[in-house]
Automatic annotation (TrEMBL):
InterPro entries: GPCR_Rhodpsn, GPCR_Rhodpsn_7TM, Olfact_rcpt. It comes from Octodon degus (Degu). The chain crosses the membrane at residues 26-50, 57-77, 97-119, 139-157, 196-224, 236-259, 274-291. This is Olfactory receptor. Residues 40-289 form the G-protein coupled receptors family 1 profile domain. Signal peptide: none annotated. Gene3D superfamilies: Rhodopsin 7-helix transmembrane proteins. GO terms for cellular component: plasma membrane. Belongs to the G-protein coupled receptor 1 family. The lineage of its organism: Eukaryota, Metazoa, Chordata, Craniata, Vertebrata. It is a multi-pass membrane protein. It is found in: Cell membrane. Coiled coil: none annotated. Keywords: Cell membrane, G-protein coupled receptor, Membrane, Olfaction, Receptor, Sensory transduction, Transducer, Transmembrane, Transmembrane helix. It comes from the Eukaryota.
Length: 309
């Protein structure tokens, strides 16, 4: 299948590096990252599902964050690994657009689920007496539905924009995946309208969650400063710092990659930047949320003890 008015039916993914001596070491490095990501996220999903004490709104969002992380790293890494061990890492036009759609869907969904998690922490810390009423199962499901609606809308906008472009004789994508900016650069009829559409959609999907998270944490910080108990303040700071470390890593690398003109950010730098939100963040999320969370560690010990007994 070729793009409309295009002569290109397949693309070649350049990969992360062209250096022959680095291909095998990079293959095993990113294979290790992928295995850690899969084990970490699947482990957290199973742990939350098996332990009733983790069936609360906060862990409901952890559960769905792990599903999103697992899904979108699986969309990217297996094809990326092929570039390290094959001379030409080919991908058909239809497969490239499919990868682009699911990549955008999961990345945007993650942005909004992080903002839903910030709102959950705001209610838990600032309005603890009405927490279970405010964050009822129905409200959590509506928030999750909103997360995926935004993900689907953004993915359709980006994929539709790229599919409207024409690709001529050049089919070499300077990236390890079918990403928006490398495909835009490859097109032979791109214009300012295409760049503006990408900027507007990306800005919306970054700014709305960031504003939500910022407002939530300003209110949380104000509330924490009024907590008289040292233990209470420590617990609140610990919970919030865990979430903020994930937010800064994820949105920082994403904003650096997309909220600049393609002419200002060389694609080689863009590839390195994209590693943080496509590979590093999904790998670290389950580690951050489990190693720094007392309830998760206690649930893990109890589950392990039951299995041993």
């Amino acid at each position: 299948m070729a793009a409309k008015n295009s002569s290109v039916t397949e693309f070649i993914l350049v990969g992360l590096s062209n250096h022959p001596g680095l291909q095998i070491p990079l293959f095993f490095l990113f294979l290790g990252f992928y295995l850690i990501t899969v084990l970490g996220n699947v482990g957290l999903i199973i742990l939350i599902a098996l332990n009733s004490q983790l069936h609360t709104p906060m862990y409901f969002f952890f559960f769905n964050l792990s599903i999103i992380d697992l899904s979108y790293c699986t969309t990217i890494i297996p094809k990326m690994l092929m570039s390290f061990i094959s001379k030409k890492n080919m991908i058909f036009y239809k497969g490239c657009m499919t990868q682009l759609f699911f990549f955008c869907f999961f990345v945007i969904s993650e942005s909004f689920i992080l903002s839903a998690m910030a709102y959950d922490r705001y209610v838990a810390i600032c309005k603890p007496l009405v927490y279970m009423v405010t964050m009822s199962p129905q409200v959590c499901l509506v928030l999750l539905l909103g997360v995926h609606v935004m993900g689907f809308t953004g993915a359709m906008a980006h994929t539709g924009n790229i599919m409207s472009l024409t690709f001529c004789s050049d089919n070499l994508i300077n990236h390890f995946m079918c990403d928006i900016l490398p495909l835009l650069e490859l097109s032979c009829n791109r214009n300012k309208a295409n760049e503006l559409a990408i900027f507007v959609v990306v800005a919306t999907d970054i700014i709305i969650p960031i504003v939500t998270i910022f407002i939530s944490y300003v209110l949380i910080l104000s509330n924490i400063l009024h907590i008289h108990s040292k233990e209470g303040r420590s617990k609140a700071f610990s919970t919030c710092s865990t979430h903020m470390s994930v937010v800064l890593l994820y949105f920082g690398s994403g904003a650096f990659m997309y909220l600049k003109s393609p002419t200002l950010l060389p694609l080689e730098q863009g590839k390195v930047s994209s590693l943080f939100y496509t590979i590093v963040a999904p790998m670290l999320n389950p580690l951050i949320y489990s190693l720094r969370n007392k309830n998760v560690k206690n649930a893990f010990r109890k589950t392990l003890a039951r299995k041993i007994l």
